[in-house]
UniProtKB/TrEMBL annotation:
Signal peptide: none annotated. This is Autophagy-related protein 11 C-terminal domain-containing protein. InterPro entries: ATG11, Atg11_C. Residues 80-193 form the Autophagy-related protein 11 C-terminal domain. It comes from Arundo donax (Giant reed). Keywords: Autophagy, Coiled coil. The keyword Kinase does not apply. One of its GO terms (biological process) is ribophagy. It comes from the Eukaryota.
Amino acid sequence: MSAFVESLRSLALSLASSIKKNETDSTIQFQQCIKVLAERVTILSRQSAELLERYSTVQAAHGAVMKDLEEKKELIKNLCSKLQLEKQASKEKISFGRFEVHELAVFIRTPPGHYEAINSNSSNYYLSEESIALFTEQHPPHPAYIIGQIVHVERRIAHVDPDSSGGRRSPASMLNPYNLTPGSEYFVVTVAMLPDAVR
């Protein structure tokens, strides 16, 4: 392209210097056309070079942005995978401390037949009768332990059974179903069943 521009420019200069007074109008017009053509091709050539340079700059910037984007996508993918693993791990952790909704808890069958939670802080966390019924309906009766996801924790106080001497359980005795010391705090825990949650 640059060689063509230089040839046109040389032709235009050569024609301009060779003009004689007795040249016809058509020859002068041809010389002027070559001169204008050479100027315009020079401008176009310069613009083309500038555009090519800009394109190269944009292409390099685009490549850098795409590389950065791919790195960010990979980072996001890795972070999402890590978050999923952490969520899964947190779902599968069994709580032995403070029981809260969505945590897992293990309840062991006691000699009287109640299910009491394994708890490192304090005892008196019992599995609700509804949860026991749900588990024993799906599995063999009286499993040694039950694992469930906590959906509700209800705080209660053990009361004295006024008819306990008569040997018959009155409705009031339901206020102390675990034979705790009167005034003791206890919790009734309702859980959702998990796969392989009883043994």
